[in-house]
Structure formats: structure tokens, C-alpha cells
Amino acid sequence: MYFGKPRKKGPTDRVPPNQNVTTSFPVLHYGNVPYYKNLDEWTLKIYGLVEKEVTLLYKELMSLPQTTSGNDIHCVTGWSKLDNVWEGVPTQQLAKMAQPMECAKYVILHAEENWTTNLPVADFLKETSLLAHTHNGEQLSPEHGYPLRAVIPHLYFWKSAKWIRGIEFTSENQPGFWEENGYHMYGDPWKEQRMTWD
């Protein structure tokens, strides 16, 4: 136990158990990478247990208040990438528009090709959570989620759905694609919640 002056937080304090730091940005996903030639018909839908269903065009999303957030990300496959800087729309801003009902306890993120992942509303609405269009000063590449991906940095990175198209508020926790295939329902990297049995 350490009783002296507070130590400067270094990389070892920021990396969960059994993770390896990388300076690259590995590309991992299931299915095809969508490539958009234009975003005129692209929409993001916020629905489910909300007072007001919202459908946003991409230009409307970009006109919303934006935030810049720095964080570390941790992949369930064992890599961690430190000091990422994201730009996008805070999830709290989107919830403010749709006004989730009190009975909404979970969020289902819907992405291209019917891909989904789940998380509690409280995690979706953390101050560190956002929907990002820019990473480290550059527009997201298609492989990393262009035009929009979730960033939920305190959970394993599969919860940060790429190519997001819908945000559904629900009363029940519903497993998404990877959760149905054995991944943990929550995914806390510090507790190594990689698989259902962890």
C-alpha cells in the first residue's frame, strides 16, 4: 500500500489486467464494411421508451453541440490504445432531445447489417460517452465506423458500436450480436468481463 504523495498516473495504472498497449488501431468487426458515397439519406433514429422519437439527418447531427473527449480504449481481444481524442455528439445531448421514460433502463445500439449491442442507460449517459465522427483530428475511416460510431470507453470496445444507425431505449436488457455468441452482457475491462462465464 502506498502512503506517500500521490503518484503520477502512468500507463500501468491505465491498462486493465491482461491487456497489451498498442500504438496502432486494429480493425476488428463481423460482416461487411459499409462505404457511403453520400450521406444525404443517412439517418440516426432514437426511439423506444422515449417521450419524443427523433430521426436526425447527418447534417442535423453535425449541427448539434459537439464535444471533444480524450480517453483510453480496451478491446476484449487484449489490446489497449491510450490517449485517443474523439470529437462528436454527447449521448446526453441526444437523450435530452428524445427524453427517455423512467421505465427505460437499457439502451440497444443498432448498427448496419442488423448488428446490435446492449448497455445500461446509466452507462450510455456517462459524461465520457459520445457518438463520434472524428478520431485524433481525422474523420473516421470506413473501417473504424464512418460516419458515426459510439464511444463508451469505460467498457470493452465492442460496446462502442461502429456504423451506428439507431438508439433504442428499452425496459429489459437484450443481448446483442456478440452477447448472444458468448460475450459478457456488461463488459467491464477492469473486471475482465470478457465472456458470459467471467
Protein described:
Strand 4 and strand 5 form a beta hairpin. This protein has helices at 11-14, 58-62, 91-98, 121-124, 177-180; strands at residues 20-21, 43-48, 54-57, 67-74, 79-90, 106-111, 116-120, 130-135, 138-139, 149-151, 164-170. The protein is built from five helices and eleven strands. It has one domain: Oxidoreductase, molybdopterin-binding domain (Sulfite Oxidase, Chain A, domain 2, Alpha-Beta Complex). Helix content is 13%, strand content 31%.
SSE blueprint:
Blueprint (H helix, E strand, L loop, with lengths): L10 H4 L5 E2 L21 E6 L5 E4 H5 L4 E8 L4 E12 H8 L7 E6 L4 E5 H4 L5 E6 L2 E2 L9 E3 L12 E7 L6 H4 L18
Parallel strand pairs: 1-5, 2-11
Antiparallel strand pairs: 2-3, 4-5, 5-8, 6-7, 6-11, 8-9, 8-10
TL;DR of this structure?
The chain has helices at residues 11-14, 58-62, 91-98, 121-124, 177-180, and strands at 20-21, 43-48, 54-57, 67-74, 79-90, 106-111, 116-120, 130-135, 138-139, 149-151, 164-170. With 198 residues, it is an alpha+beta fold. The chain has a single domain, classed as Sulfite Oxidase, Chain A, domain 2, CATH 3.90.420.
